[in-house]
Amino acid sequence: MPHYPKPFFRENRCLWYVQVDGKQINLGADRETAFRQYHQLMQQPAQTATSTAAVSVASIVDAFLDWSQKHQAERTYSRYGEYCQSFVNLFPDLLVSDIKPFHIQEWVDSQSGWGNTTKRNAIVAMKRAFNWADKQGHISVNPIRHAEKPTPDKREDFITAADHKKVLAQVRDQEFRDLLVLAWETGARPRELFRLEARHVDLENGRWVFPKSESKGKRQSRTIYLSEVALEITQRLMAKPIQGPLLRNANGQPWGTESVNCRFCRLKKWIGKKVCLYLWRHGYAHRMLSQQVDSLVVATLMGHVDTTMLSTVYGHLMKNQKLLREAVRKSVS
């Protein structure tokens, strides 16, 4: 009797696959649909089935995600996986020979909860997958290279000095207070605060230093310079016999996105709005620029390679009429 491959479930992707001639074909997340596609595939001639696997968008996405999982940071792989799988779910049977930029536009337009920044990131993820496939020789040309990306939304929301003071007034435990104060004083990314360990601390020079392998983008090391307040908190944390992350909650567990968001949810009724830790970083950028610190210095302190992010994403100063009037007054006086 002839032997036929059987569908199998990959838990890390939450998807069904079948392997034909050494190639894994994505059958989708729903078991019933996956087996229906499987039976249709098995009715095709062997050569046709293999050809379909080789040129399907799903196969390109799967190959790219396999590579990303092995060679990129977990966070990057997870983000690419979320976006690319979303496209495949909408167009499960689309072939590389048939995909056009309008498919990309239809996909992002169908996501009612996505803003321009999310749509841009999603398109970048799909373009990245096809650029990789082009470079690796899986395809001869990237068919969505001309897909247009929207301009990212300005990050208008940020924490002011008054907001920061209001939040701290409702925080009773030292552990959460330390996290918020360090975010306010350093402008560090939440991920950097969560991962800070004693090995990153350079007390002599008043800074934290993350090696290139642990920095965003992995292109260069990340140095965070400390104010007197941040240095005092760091010294106090260093005095504790802690292995691993220095910033921990009252239960001794390292802070993370979920635990911090839970705290902010409980604080919402006191501060009048839902906030996230990243808004402290935005507030840092606004505060430094409002004090007319050179934009290149601010970009360096925040870990950007140049001022592009400040000028294109942080739009806070555009609405600071007092600051703009003061700048004009000084220029003509």
Q: Note the run of SSEs as H and E.
A: EEEHHHHHHHHHEEEHHHHHH
Rg value:
25 Å
The CATH H-level superfamily of the largest domain is Intergrase catalytic core
The percent range for strand residues is 5-15%
With strands numbered from the N-terminus, the spatial order across the biggest sheet is 1-2-3
Q: How would you characterize the largest beta sheet?
A: 3 strands, antiparallel
Number of helical regions: 15
- The rounded distance between the terminal residues' Cα atoms is 93 Å
Any idea of the CATH class of the largest domain? Mainly Alpha
Principal-axes shape call:
elongated
Question: How many distinct domains?
Answer: 2
CATH architecture group name of the largest domain? Orthogonal Bundle
CATH topology of the largest domain: hpI Integrase, Chain A
Structural description of this entry:
- The structure is a single chain.
- This protein has 333 residues and is mostly helical.
- It has 2 domains: 8-136, no CATH class; 161-332, hpI Integrase, Chain A (Orthogonal Bundle), CATH 1.10.443.
- It has 15 helices and 6 strands.
- The strands form 2 sheets. It has a 3-stranded antiparallel β-sheet with strand order 1-2-3.
- Helix 3 runs antiparallel to helix 4 (74-90), helix 4 crosses helix 6 (116-136) and helix 8 packs across helix 12 (278-290).
- The longest helix has 21 residues, at 116-136.
- The radius of gyration is 25 Å and the shape is elongated.
